[in-house]
Design brief:
The chain contains 3 helices and no strands. It is mainly alpha-helical. α2 packs across α3. The longest helix is centred in the middle third of the chain and has 14 residues. The chain starts with a helix and ends in a 47-residue tail after the last helix.
Length: 90
């Protein structure tokens, strides 16, 4: 849930609010646990925290490999969603 919420369109407070609504007492204290989870993702280079809204500054959808990365071809029977998002061009 946190991964999906942290898409650059919400503040930390908004993310905590949704997490609290979804998980109630199992995530309490929500701010500390959410911050700890974000920190762990940052430590593993899975997340970046920015001070201002993302506002479409870079592509966050599926199907685009960063210029500095080289990935192997996927097997024919893979189950990954690599389809373009709405209003997205290849």
């Amino acid at each position: 849930m946190l991964w999906e919420l942290a898409d650059g369109s919400r503040t930390f407070g908004e993310i905590c609010q949704v997490m609290n609504e979804m998980f109630r007492e199992t995530i309490a204290p929500v701010m500390q646990r959410t911050a700890a989870a974000i920190q762990q993702m940052m430590n593993n280079n899975l997340m970046l925290v920015i001070e201002e809204p993302l506002l479409g500054r870079w592509f966050i959808g599926p199907g685009k490999t960063p210029d500095h990365q080289v990935l192997d071809e996927l097997p024919e029977d893979h189950a990954y969603d690599w389809s373009l998002m709405e209003n997205e061009t290849p």
